[in-house]
Amino acid sequence: MRHMGDVLAGIHATWEFDTDAVLIRFERGIRAPKLFQSLRERRIPYAALSSVTLTPGKRNTVVLRAVPRVGADPLVEAAAGQLKEGYDPYRLVLPAEREVLAEYYADELRTVLDPASDEPADRFLVAAPEAPMSFKAYDGRASTGSGSPSGGRGPGLPAPSGRLTTRPSGWVNWPESYGAPPKRSTAICG
Q: Are 143 and 152 in contact (CB under 8 A)?
């Protein structure tokens, strides 16, 4: 890109163009997808992109999309095509009145694409997102350390034991003095 530090703000994300990469910062608001909130920001080298498209969107918007090379981004490889359109981290939705500006940046991005951009990448070119320190599912919750995501040691610090502890969601407050929690019945009433 010719102008380092140019910024293009869209809905749920902002793209900042650098000399060798685009920095995508995701919004953390209440309406932003949870995937974007957990990603926070991603640095995408131009060598990791295969093409750039600009298409009309829904409700007076345009969509600027950078298409990653096959094998360049571990997140896209892990998702294996399962991400819905609204959760695509390479998609920037802009109001229709910014179409000319989006077209300018699409053309600028196309000029910096690697000549081998159609070929699959031989290694990951984008850093993998950080693994979650805790997660919750329908039937339980898992975290490192002693219940808090950081093991009670503060944000970003490793848990004292480093082992994964789990507890079923229905037994979060089961007193240890009662012994082991009872087994759930698997009988089907009917």
A: no
